[in-house]
Write a structure and sequence with these properties.
CATH class of the largest domain: Alpha Beta
Number of helices: 11
CATH architecture of the largest domain: 3-Layer(aba) Sandwich
Shape: globular
Strand content: 5-15%
Number of strands: 8
Helix content: 40-55%
Strand order of the largest sheet: 3-2-1-6-7-8
Order of helices and strands: EHHHHHHEHEEEHEHEHEH
Radius of gyration: 17 Å
Largest sheet: 6 strands, parallel
Number of domains: 2
Bound molecules: magnesium ion
CATH superfamily of the largest domain: HAD superfamily/HAD-like
């Protein structure tokens, strides 16, 4: 039975830690500071950090807290966070990515907590868009009408059902452990991509803040129980294919 691959984008298919995440971080902080500010003055850094981390813990994504408590429109938050002067100049990925995806057997689906416009730009930049039968960006991660990005189990359940209902056939390839943990608990297979993890970077939509990411980095020496296969590059994924599919 051929696998159905769900590929994360940032820090899985390309090196977002290099320049994209630092830019998203500062964009997101500026946006949150404006929203939380009073009398025309932006909120201070301590206040911004408390909101980011608090909402992340409570809702799994800073974005969801900003929507729920500050009447922020998701589209406004995502647009502000993903505003770059020169995105192509900020992107880099492992060599031969194109050929690797071409050789990988099975259906491939992009599953990213990033917004569609940005993820489309990144895929196009690397010439990868035609490898994916579906492109699921954060805007379409809705369950019962509510925005439920990764690591939402409701979202993953919905995706498994939509693609045949057999979780064992579905493989999530990701850098974020919380997402792999959710996938594993539903019976999906999991590949942890550690090659681009660094200590102090953030994820899109505030789903993997500095603290969470640093904790993931600290675990890269081991293979946590929610991880079937740990790789440092997609190239390594090929060496692990038989182990993963057994
Ligand atoms: Mg990622």
């Amino acid at each position: 039975m051929s696998p159905i691959w769900f590929f994360d984008l940032d820090n899985t298919l390309h090196d977002a830690s290099h320049r994209v995440f630092p830019a998203i971080n500062s964009n997101m902080n500026a946006f949150i500071a404006d929203v939380l500010g009073e009398g025309g003055a932006p909120a201070d850094a301590a206040c911004v950090n408390a909101a980011r981390i608090g909402y992340l813990r409570r809702y799994g994504a800073t974005l969801l807290g900003m929507v729920r408590h500050h009447q922020v429109r998701p589209a406004d938050f995502l647009e502000a966070a993903h505003r770059f002067d020169d995105l192509p100049a900020m992107l880099r990925a492992e060599r031969g990515l194109d050929a690797l995806l071409a050789r990988l057997p099975g259906q491939k689906i992009l599953l990213t907590n990033a917004p569609l416009r940005y993820s489309t730009d990144v895929l196009r930049h690397f010439g990868l868009q035609h490898y994916f039968t579906h492109h699921i960006a954060i805007e379409s991660m809705r369950v019962h009408g509510r925005l439920q990005p990764k690591p939402s189990k409701a979202l993953l359940r919905k995706l498994i059902a939509r693609h045949g209902g057999n979780a064992r056939r579905c493989v999530l390839v990701e850098d974020t452990l919380a997402n792999l943990k959710a996938a594993k608990s539903l019976g999906m297979r999991t590949v942890w991509m550690t090659g681009y993890l660094r200590g102090s970077v953030s994820g899109q939509s505030g789903t993997a803040p500095a603290a969470g990411n640093a904790a993931d980095v600290a675990k890269t020496r081991k293979r946590p129980p929610c991880v079937d296969v740990k790789v440092q590059s997609l190239k390594q994924l090929f060496d692990s294919l038989s182990r993963l599919m057994r």
